[in-house]
């Protein structure tokens, strides 16, 4: 069962390959790209313990010289200090412009490896091998790379496209349930912003809160349609000049929640889920979509085992203040992505602070 999706860009187009068991063929896939023989594989200890040797064996069997660099797990390590350590390993192993940095891990590893690749020797090859659902359907596609600043998420970064995204659904079997649910938040997002048929498929599933209850066919559909949705959007707007901003549905308030909770209490997917609930409520109050559609969205979020309420100790005023540091702020106005129907959204900067405050209070635990 192989799905290949083309990310078509004016420059630096690439493919997303989705195939069970493909990690064992990693070297063959990269050989087809005619890159240099040096590869720096970046991962975290947990992911490497499960899949590092499989990746290394495949790469070495295909004739690559492979070096490794490990970064401790967690969003708190997504810093410039961690990037400097990647640079050190690249220098120690004499990585050249023809060399490749390969991210084996979730979104944090992918973001940091991509940023390091974008900036080492002014840009070397970059390959994404995502191991979490969230990174498979979102973070590994589209070229956004970067690290966090103490005052905001992903404020330091660059657009830098990978040469290949290789997705092996079988690696999700070792993904913790909470992380699988976090990825489902992004899948639901695609259903709301772009693909009503995907949304309907998700509604028809018995359970979405644990990969153990998903058939291989449904998982392949989820991965393929989600990746296709992102590829379509990125292909039309690579650097977020307009349309691509819709991919931030749920992220406006979600990023604020992540930042205020120190990136450790609530994970990215959970924050996005809460952000979608907030955005859906705002849209209903502005009469942009129906209450029935809002209920359908929230039911799907709950079905995936995701939170729909803001923690009680999170101050609404702090959330509103944090929104001002968001990358989507333009001319001092916070831009929201709001749904107009299942499968379609719009971008607006005309959401009054009083309405944001009202909604935050309504969805508090």
Automatic annotation (TrEMBL):
Pfam families: DHQ_synthase, DHQS_C. This is 3-dehydroquinate synthase. It comes from the Bacteria. Binds 1 divalent metal cation per subunit. Can use either Co(2+) or Zn(2+). The keyword Nucleotide-binding applies. One of its GO terms (biological process) is chorismate biosynthetic process. HAMAP family: DHQ_synthase (MF_00110).
């Amino acid at each position: 069962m192989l799905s290949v999706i083309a990310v078509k860009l004016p420059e630096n187009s690439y493919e997303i390959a989705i195939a069970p068991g493909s990690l064992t063929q990693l070297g063959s896939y990269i050989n087809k790209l005619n890159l240099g023989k040096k590869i720096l594989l970046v991962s975290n200890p947990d992911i490497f313990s499960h899949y590092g040797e499989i990746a290394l064996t495949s790469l070495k069997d295909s004739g690559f010289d492979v070096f490794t660099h490990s970064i401790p797990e967690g969003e708190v390590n997504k810093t410039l200090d961690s990037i400097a350590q990647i640079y050190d390993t690249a220098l120690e192993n004499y990585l050249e412009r023809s060399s490749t940095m390969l991210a084996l891990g979730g979104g944090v590893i992918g973001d940091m490896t991509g940023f390091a690749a974008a900036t080492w020797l002014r840009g070397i090859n970059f390959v994404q091998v995502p191991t979490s659902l969230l990174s498979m359907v979102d973070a590994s596609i589209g070229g956004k790379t970067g690290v966090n600043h103490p005052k905001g998420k992903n404020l330091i970064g660059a657009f830098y496209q990978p040469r290949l995204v290789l997705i092996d659904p079988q690696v999700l079997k070792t993904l913790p349930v909470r992380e699988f649910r976090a990825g489902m938040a992004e899948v639901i997002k695609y259903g709301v912003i772009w693909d009503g048929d995907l949304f309907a498929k998700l509604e028809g599933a018995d359970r979405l809160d644990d990969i153990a209850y998903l058939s291989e066919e449904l998982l392949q559909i989820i991965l393929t349609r989600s990746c296709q949705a992102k590829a379509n959007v990125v292909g039309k707007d690579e650097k977020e000049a307009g349309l691509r901003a819709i991919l931030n549905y749920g992220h406006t308030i979600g990023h604020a929640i992540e930042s205020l909770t120190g990136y450790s209490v609530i994970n990215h997917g959970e924050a996005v889920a809460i952000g979608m609930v907030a955005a859906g409520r705002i849209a209903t109050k502005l009469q942009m979509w129906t209450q029935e559609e809002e209920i359908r969205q929230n039911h799907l979020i709950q079905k995936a085992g995701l939170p729909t309420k803001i923690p009680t100790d999170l101050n609404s005023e702090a959330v509103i203040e944090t929104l001002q540091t968001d990358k989507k702020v333009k001319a001092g106005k916070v831009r929201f992505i709001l749904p107009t129907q299942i499968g379609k959204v719009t971008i607006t900067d005309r959401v009054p602070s009083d309405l944001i405050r009202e909604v935050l209070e309504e969805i508090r635990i």
